[in-house]
Amino acid sequence: MCGIVGYIGRQPCTPILVEGLKRLEYRGYDSAGVAVVEAGGVRVVRSVGKLAALEEKLRGTELKGTVGVGHTRWATHGRPSEENAHPHAAGEVVVVHNGIIENYLELRGELSAAGHEFLSETDTEVIPHLIQRFLRDGADLEEALRQTIARLDGSYAVAVVSAADPDRLLAARRASPLVVGLGEGETFVASDIPAVLGHTRRFIFLEDGDLAVCTREGVRITHADQGPVDREVHVVQWTPAMAEKGGYKHFMQKEIFEQPRALADTLSGRLGAGRAAVHLDGGDQADEIARRIGRLHIVACGTSYHAGLVGKYWIEGIARVPVEVSLASEFRYQDPILGPETGLLLISQSGETADTLAALAEGREKGAPILSICNVVGSSIPRASDAVLYTHAGPEIGVASTKAFTTQLATLYLLALHMGAARGRLSAEDLAERIEAVRAVPGAVERSLESDPHIETVARSIMDATSSLFLGRGLQFPIALEGALKLKEISYIHAEGYAAGEMKHGPIALVDEDLPVVALSPQGATYEKMRSNIQEVRARRGRVIAVASESDAEIADHAESVLRVPDFDPELLPIVSVVPLQLLAYHTAVLKGTDVDQPRNLAKSVTVE
Ligand code: M6R
């Protein structure tokens, strides 16, 4: 997904822009560029491919300016090419843009008829041309940008510089994230905090409709409807080191191993000391929604959707509140039945997923109380929700979601306990017992990480497979789906997650001596049934990789390999049993030499529908 960095200060900006873009690489991109305000005009340098190609081009230039913008592009309109890469210019005006301008064809026609010449296939290029037109009509840069964004349909985060106005950096947003970073004698804009975290920790999150005029001294913000506004300055606690690899080979690996700490942070302050209580830490409105609603509709994408599937088991089982779970991309086509009695629970690591945001809008229109579970503080979904439960996992950079998933699960479990207690479905004794069990989760995850070296050898045994099957039942079924998603997205081995009981209704036809079948069969209510499924696979010479409890001595006789998980409360085991599957996917991808943190065709934050 595209990334934006902008700088106005006293230092040459090119290294700051390039470093910022590097920190946004995880978002995925296919081309990149920078624009720097120089004495003779704005100089634009762009290239296709990785940032190294851009750096190579910049080596031959003498860019010294102290105001500029940079961009990494993930193509939506027009192929990845140098002409389509940002920044885009019209005369002295230069723009970088994230999002999609839905009425760009109409605007392009209008501008072309007025003599404007377009050099790219992008929707973005209409923006500098519109600004240029309003400048010619007599507006100053700020007013020209204001008039421009009033003409745009769709989503945008833009940063603008102009040779004719060299001491200002302008930014505006609607439905695409943008922050302003405040430094000493310098101001930054960025689509994502890590881009400029090495320079400042003080951030303003721009709201939809905001237009920011940045100077070396600070920022002035006006809102399209409200006029001048004061936005809160947030001091972000993440250190630059937290956003880096910290000694691990990949961000994904670091994030897998961070899970015990991340889970402890999720639980921190939420489990009542000395008495049986769970505090959601989402404000009064979160408590109110959890207590009042008669039904819950969970909506999310990808890994977050899998967390929602586990959440359904817990909330229905513990609180006896009916739960439906939908993929955000399908939600609006279902004409969902929502209203004040049906809570909408959105789950999103990034808080910026376009499909999930669209589901939120649908829920808002239909009057549902809206709760979200999110990792990124101040992102769009929490800000548009009535209440938010933060997962506190810290920045997740690897495209493959890991610690975000397990912390989402922990948060969902706390929500289930809170709802169960509030509705009198859990006795104080039951609640206290479950609280003790959840306290033990970080330790159990820590223990399952100890199998890492063994899992690497198992990964070696499946790395040449072209296809694989992941089977689970009950609470372990969503974990089978998640294990398959992890393997396919980073190792590119086809992987299907299936409810084990469904195997005989179709997928069993795939089983032969080449097919690895990962069977989630830890101790618990579905253990015996899973054992039967394992036998069915073995009878057809399939290769069984069992995820099994430490105490299960027998399983080794029935499987080619065993991935061990500690003996643990079956209700909470999904948070633990997913860990060996994350490691299996990770090692398989590393052995195959794929781009683990930025798998092909994928982006961390999917901000287009
Ligand atoms: O930021 P979100 O949780 O809303 O993202 C949802 C999905 O795009 C995400 O989980 C995706 O499936 C990951 N690549 C899975 O590892």
Question: What multimeric state do the chains show?
Answer: single chain
Q: Given the structure, what is the number of helices?
A: 19
Q: What's the CATH architecture of the largest domain?
A: 4-Layer Sandwich
Class inferred from helices and paired strands? alpha/beta
Q: Give a list of the ligands.
A: 5-amino-5-deoxy-1-O-phosphono-D-mannitol
The major sheet is characterized as: 8 strands, antiparallel
Shape: globular
Number of DSSP strand runs: 25
State the CATH class of the largest domain: Alpha Beta
Task: Give the key terms.
single chain; binds 5-amino-5-deoxy-1-O-phosphono-D-mannitol; alpha/beta; about 35% helix; 3 domains; about 600 residues; Glutamine Phosphoribosylpyrophosphate, subunit 1, domain 1; Rossmann fold; seven-stranded antiparallel β-sheet; eight-stranded antiparallel β-sheet
What does this structure look like?
The chain is an alpha/beta fold. The protein has three domains: 3-243, Aminohydrolase, N-terminal nucleophile (Ntn) domain (Glutamine Phosphoribosylpyrophosphate, subunit 1, domain 1, 4-Layer Sandwich), CATH 3.60.20.10; 251-439, Rossmann fold, CATH 3.40.50.10490; 448-592, Glucose-6-phosphate isomerase like protein, domain 1 (Rossmann fold, 3-Layer(aba) Sandwich). The chain is 35% helix and 22% strand. The protein has 19 helices and 25 strands. The strands form four sheets. The protein has an eight-stranded antiparallel sheet with strand order 3-2-4-1-10-9-11-15, covered by helices on one side. The protein has a seven-stranded antiparallel sheet with strand order 5-6-7-8-12-13-14. Strands 17-16-18-19-20 form a five-stranded parallel sheet, with helices on both faces. Strand 13 and strand 14 (227-229) form a beta hairpin. Helix 7 packs parallel to helix 13, helix 9 (302-319) runs antiparallel to helix 17 and helix 16 crosses helix 19 (573-592). It is globular, with a radius of gyration of 26 Å. The chain starts with a strand and ends in a 17-residue tail after the last helix. The mean pLDDT is 94. 5-amino-5-deoxy-1-O-phosphono-D-mannitol (M6R) is lined by residues 301-304, 348-350, 353, 356, 399-401, 485, 489, 602, 606. 5-amino-5-deoxy-1-O-phosphono-D-mannitol binds at residues 301-304, 348-350, 353, 356, 399-401, 485, 489, 602, 606.
